[in-house]
């Protein structure tokens, strides 16, 4: 039995200290994942509370066939999606304000690639952004991504392909030199 | 596997490679092929750029505040108060509780059944069958138990035998001197079909 499985067993047995340890290990990642969707601190915190309460209540359902973070992110995703539906959120596709355009122009001129990609990523749709987030922020494998999103492995790969195409398109529209990095 | 297919597979793996999420074996394989494939190098440059963009995003994320866990903890403790959560969290307790309920039900059932078949007269308890003056009594068919009890109380007697298959009871009275009066009371009670001294 590995450390994660031990923690889960202790949680199932009602050990709150084990939940605290699990929270310390995973909270940052889970919070970032939720915040990335809702872009609001209070809502993200409420969803964190919901997520870890669910973890406490349904720990016995964790089968141990994935990393514990994958399982928690799956719970967080379900709760966040419900919240988004309930409140009729629009996932942030940033509108180009005048300031942003000016910033974009400056960055293009100075060729600050990271900052431009940062802006371009924020313009991606929920579907495309989410899949890249799971890999580049949460460092999950394709199998783990498939599990969280509840989609086949090949769909993960296809979605990454389209996310990449979209990101390129956005960067081109932002005036990024094609030879800069792709 | 044809080389073009292999290239495609490696291309798919580049986001993971840029994040160092591939095994050492896979990394070696990718690096061997990458060195001779400018198109793949370009693709990798793109993903490295995405990685750097994400590094910046990660730096911009707010940290979860310190008051989240206390709220989780208090929510959990609050939920613990609900009896149903005790059941859902502790199967042994649930099973024990079900068994306890089952035993209580069985016990009650036995108690009720015993109540039904145990005939408790209101008559005096000191009358013993051997010494009592015995009277054969047949009650009317529709007579109620309460009426029989009241009658037995009136004559200060008790049922010492019966009922037989034909519905005959033997009622005993303590005081032999009162036998005629008791017989009279029984016969006039309206609930007795037959009242005769037993031989």
Summarize the structure.
Chain A has 182 residues and is mainly α. Chain A has helices spanning 3-12, 16-38, 41-58, 68-87, 98-110, 113-123, 126-136, 142-149, 153-173, 178-181.
List the helices and strands and how they pair.
The complex is a heterodimer of chains A (182) and B (199).
Chain A: H1 3-12, H2 16-38, H3 41-58, H4 68-87, H5 98-110, H6 113-123, H7 126-136, H8 142-149, H9 153-173, H10 178-181
Helix pairs in contact in A: 1-2, 2-3, 2-4, 3-4, 4-8, 7-9, 8-9
Chain B: H1 3-18, H2 24-34, H3 38-60, H4 68-80, H5 83-89, H6 91-117, E1 133-139, H7 145-155, E2 157-161, E3 168-173, H8 179-188, E4 192-197
Antiparallel strand pairs in B: 1-3, 1-4, 2-3
Content of β-strand of chain B: 5-15%
Which two chains form the greatest contact, residue counts included? A-B, 45 and 38 residues
Query: Helix-strand pattern of chain B, N to C?
Result: HHHHHHEHEEHE
The CATH topology annotation of the largest domain in chain A reads as Rna Polymerase Sigma Factor, Chain: A
Q: Which fold name corresponds to the CATH topology of the largest domain in chain B? A: Alpha-Beta Plaits
Give the percentage of residues in beta strands of chain A.
Answer: under 5%
Mean pLDDT of chain B comes to 84
The ordered string of helix (H) and strand (E) elements of chain A is HHHHHHHHHH
Q: Percent helix among the residues of chain B?
A: 55-70%
Q: Please, how many domains of chain B?
A: 3
Q: Tell me the major beta sheet of chain A.
A: none
What is the annotated CATH architecture of the largest domain in chain A? Orthogonal Bundle
In the CATH hierarchy, the architecture of the largest domain in chain B is 2-Layer Sandwich
Overall, the morphology of chain B is: rod-shaped
Low-confidence parts of chain A, pLDDT < 50 over ≥5 residues?
91-96
Specify the overall morphology of chain A: elongated
> How many runs of DSSP E, i.e. beta strands of chain B?
4
| C-alpha termini separation of chain B | 113 Å
**Number of H/I helices of chain B:** 8
